[in-house]
Amino acid sequence: MVLALQIILVIAAVLMTIFILLHKGKGGGLSSLFGGGVQSNLSGSTVVEKNLDRVTIICCLIWLACIVALNLLQAYAT
Predict the structure, then answer these.
(1) Do residues 52 and 20 lie in contact, with contact meaning Cβ atoms separated by under 8 Å?
(2) For a tag on the chain, would you pick the N or C end, based on fewer CB atoms within 10 A?
(3) Where is the chain membrane-spanning (predicted)?
């Protein structure tokens, strides 16, 4: 059980990193330093961006649930 949760945790962490990096910049941050600020002002929020937000949040919740479950299993292990 612990091994399965650890594998899910690693996969969720990698996917969450990829999904966060796929988001386009909202301007004013590091993305505008590399020229991303001009593009973010020209286009609005698309369906793809909204779906990417949803998938990122779901992946974050899975990651958080794995951390809590692993800590509970470790705390109550006999």
Answers:
(1) no
(2) C
(3) 6-22, 55-77
**CB-based contact 26:40 (threshold 8 Å):** yes
Note the pTM of the prediction, 2 decimals: 0.74
- Domain range for 3 is 1-23+45-78
Tokens of 25: 């910049």
Is 39 inside any structural domain? no
Digit-by-digit pLDDT tens for the chain (78 residues) are 999 999 999 999 999 999 999 887 765 555 555 655 555 555 556 888 889 999 999 999 999 999 999 999 999 986
Written as one letter, the residue type at 7 is I
